[in-house]
Specification:
The chain is α/β, with parallel strands linked by helices and 366 residues long. Bound molecules: iron/sulfur cluster.
């Protein structure tokens, strides 16, 4: 892993809220108002070139939403996203002006740029557009479900060919040669090129998804639980393949998983999420050996260990994760915390404290 002065990807104070609009009748009869699901709430994270950051937490804690914000499948509600030091999504929306009779771009192509203004000259807009397009090429995602993430009507040639065309490879012979090269690299063969997704096993489909991501020659890949839908024996093959590809293509990963053994094996650093917040972040070895946040301690205590000597004391968390629609005041974990410090836990949101290389959001370390 090369540590440069600028992180490859950085999110600063990112929020992603999803509105819920109850129907008119529900509003009138039950008096319910519009609400917000606070899926990601004020998260900051840096990912350096060549490293793998593991993102863990219970289902519904916001891991997938954060990953999708990082590749701009979701636009952030607030905060900023930087790629190679340049802001690619941010607080202030700047709509390119209607110029030269061109229609305003669709919402998905709205460019966020703090430094630009509504009256930005077209040269700036062209530069912003180039930055925007290179971001989408250089950041890719591998989805959790290999069954639904491939178009069942397209052959492997078509699926990978779309990505290659986006990359600028329009010659059909070159495109076929590159498709075959990618298929071989991910462990498939020439005979698979004209097959449809339903003709493959789960592991093979995930390999196609990986080949599709590689076709864009990305620098950053969000792997969203890429092995959780696969058999255990296949999981190991896909994980090892991803590790090899990282070395070969100098990739940087955000690896989202709830399986802590996978995270331990793959990650250089780990960020632990709870109810839309990162509650602890540290180097993998240090986090697994000396977890600081009570939630991290509970998560690690739940890992089954065969050797008796290595077993941790079991921590059973009471209750369930609160709703992200109406999160508790103070520390988001206080409703289940077994180490509560005092009234401040219920009153004030804990800031981040630096504890021996760990970033921990907990009043215990004040
Ligand atoms: Fe527990 Fe308080 Fe720390 Fe939250 S801030 S994890 S409630 S001790």
């Amino acid at each position: 892993m090369t540590q440069t002065a600028v992180p490859l990807v950085e999110v600063r104070n990112i929020k992603k809220y999803f509105p819920i609009h109850p129907g008119l009748l529900v509003k009138l009869l039950a008096g319910r108002q519009d609400q917000m699901v606070k899926a990601v709430d004020d998260v900051s994270l840096k990912i350096w070139p060549g490293e793998t950051v593991g993102l863990v937490g219970e289902s519904g804690c916001g891991k997938t939403t954060l990953g999708r914000v990082m590749v701009r499948l979701h636009q952030p509600t607030a905060g900023q996203l930087f790629f190679r030091g340049q802001m690619v999504a941010g607080d202030r929306i700047v709509l390119p002006p209607h110029s030269n009779g061109q229609p305003r771009p669709p919402a998905s192509q709205i460019i966020f740029d703090e430094s630009a203004s509504i009256s930005a000259p077209s040269a700036n807009l062209a530069e912003m557009e180039a930055r925007h397009l290179s971001f989408f090429r250089l950041t890719q995602i591998i989805f959790q479900n290999p069954y639904s993430s491939l178009n069942p009507r397209k052959t492997v040639r078509d699926i990978i060919g779309v990505a290659l065309r986006q990359r600028g490879l329009t010659n059909s012979q070159e495109s076929e040669a590159e498709t075959l090269r990618l298929l071989k690299r991910v462990g498939l063969s020439e005979r698979h090129i004209d097959a449809y997704p339903h003709q493959f096993s789960g592991g093979q489909r995930q390999r196609i998804g990986i080949a599709r991501a590689l076709a864009m020659q990305p620098q950053f890949i969000v792997a969203d639980e890429p092995v959780s839908a696969l058999d255990v024996s296949i999981q190991a093959q896909v994980i090892n393949l991803m590790k090899e590809l990282q070395q070969e293509f100098h990739l940087t990963y955000l690896f989202i998983a709830h399986d802590l053994s996978v995270i331990y094996y793959l990650s250089d650093r780990v960020a632990v999420m709870y109810l839309g917040h990162i509650v602890e972040e540290a180097e993998t070895q240090s986090l697994f050996e000396h977890p600081r946040h009570p939630y991290t301690q509970a998560l690690l205590a739940a890992i089954p260990v065969v050797e008796k000597a290595a077993r941790r004391e079991r921590i059973v968390l009471s209750g369930t994760v609160p709703s992200p629609i109406d999160p508790p005041a103070g520390c988001p974990f206080h409703t289940r915390c077994f180490a509560k410090k005092g009234p401040e836990c219920e009153q004030k949101f804990p800031p981040e404290f630096e504890v021996e290389g760990h970033r921990v959001a907990c009043w215990l370390y004040e």
